[in-house]
Amino acid sequence: MTTVQSPPAPPTAIRPRVVARTSLYAVLAANVAVVAYFFGQAGFASNALIVIGRVTGLYGALLMAFQLVLVARLPWLDRRIGMDRLTSWHRWTGFGILWTLLAHAVFITFGYADGTGVGPISEVVDLAETTEGVFRAVVAFGIIIVVGAVSARSARRRLAYETWHFIHLYTYVAVVLAFTHQVAVGTTFTSSSAATTYWYGVWGVALGSVVLGRVILPLWRNTRHQFRVSAVVPESHNVVSITITGKDLDKLPAQAGQFFLWRFLTRDRWWQANPFSLSAAPDGRSLRLTAKAAGDGSAALRHLKVGTRVFAEGPYGAFTTLHRTKAESLLIAGGVGVTPIRALLEDLEGHAVVLYRVSSDRDAVLYDELRDLALAKGAELHLVTGPPVPDRLAPRELARLVPDIGDRDVFLCGPPPMMNAVLRSLGDLGVPKQQIHFERFSLAG
After folding, report:
1. Domain ranges across the chain
2. How many CB atoms lie within 10 A of CB 108?
């Protein structure tokens, strides 16, 4: 008897990333309009410099609240947009805050100095000494300048992630100081009960989002699931797989392609969190990560003992089947970037082609698993070996290996240079952007 398997249903035409992005833009635009309404309702100062200063201060406050939402790691946004893109938006919003608050400080200072006939420095000192909340605003602005300076690419490359993150945490101090400044002297804040309620609501939602996404959800999930190391398996001389078990893992909303921030609670590692992708699709009984030794922290993973407690934050990431637009797929992995690709292959329906790019056969970790999985699912697997030059995934080579590449979703994960080269090749081949799915591991502070 022959069973004919029907092809998988085509993915939905509604793109979750577009829905989430449009929703964010719409909410921000609505709040821009509301702030303008309340500002106009409060009346205008006679000095144009003060008017401009107040407007820039209000929009600086709104951007600060918006930035907190971006960095809150809310599951609905993270699954649809991805932490890497949210982090990028967070970074550029931070520079917007810096410039709007700088404009606020300059215009307010010169505006009041113009009315009193003193210099701007003397006016700042006088306001800080005599007006409630101004000194707190000066401190908050100083913190924002420092955080902005260490967030510049040149400075960021010179700092360890833990150092950068510790400095970045002072942003929350600046937010609290800025809010108390707004409460104390903000004329728009106190112009009406509706304006006061609105601003309390904005700050409540922003700060509540951070507490929910960064504190409550991780604590609740770790208390519920009680993660522990159940197996440590060396895959090669510098790659290790770690299996994590726990309670009620079938209720953990993790998907193939996602990652967690793993914190192994040993005496020398409890303070260090590392982002590692799942290297197998979640099965409701265990989670598996596979990591390459890239530093002292990841190199020490092979020495973890079975039974070690784990604090896991996540799951995070939009590199999942949620964003499929086609019934067939192309999976491209480079090096240890095979980990989420291997998990995705396990989860994908429809015909798939897998390209695994490595320097040599011995670098192809998890290859046996990938080969067996491809055989079981009827997928094509190509191991592409050789040095980076010449490019083995150039447009001509990709078109030869996958002639129908334009009719497939493309999932890409690997080292940044390799990913950039493949993205250029896909662009040259005319693959639509909405069919290309990738994620760069970036952590928002």
Report:
1. 16-213, 226-316, 321-438
2. 26
Q: What is the mean pLDDT of residues 253-276?
A: 91
Handedness of CA 427, 379, 381, 441 (dihedral sign): positive
Paired residues of 311 in beta bridges: 263
Pairwise CA distance, residues 63 & 100, whole Å: 9
CATH classification number, 16-213, choose in 1.20.272, 2.60.120, 1.20.120, 1.10.1200: 1.20.120
> Residue 296: pLDDT band by 50, 70, 90 thresholds?
low
Q: What token pair was written down for 423?
A: 């993205």
- Provide DSSP, 85-147: HHHHHHHHHHHHHHHHHHHHHHHHHHHHHHHHTS-HHHHHHHHHHHSTTHHHHHHHHHHHHHH
Fold of 226-316: Elongation Factor Tu (Ef-tu); domain 3 (2.40.30)
Identify whether the C-beta of residue 178 lies closer than 8 Å to the C-beta of residue 137.
Answer: yes
Q: Which two tokens stand for residue 151?
A: 């967030």
Confidence grade of residue 167 (pLDDT, cut at 50, 70, 90)? confident
Phi, psi of 304 (to 5 degrees): -65, 145
Tokens in use for 267? 């005496």
Nearest to 87 by CA among 151, 31, 32: 151
Contact by Cβ (8 Å): 354, 385? no
DSSP run (H or E) holding 261: strand 259-264
- The structure's pTM equals 0.85
Nearest to 239 by CA among 196, 294, 193: 294
CATH code, residues 321-438: 3.40.50.80
Q: Average pLDDT in the 226-245 region?
A: 94
Query: How would you class 182 by CB atoms within 10 Å of its CB: exposed for 0-12, middle for 13-18, buried for 19 or more?
Result: buried
How much is the pLDDT for 11? 56
Q: Which two tokens stand for residue 74?
A: 């809310």
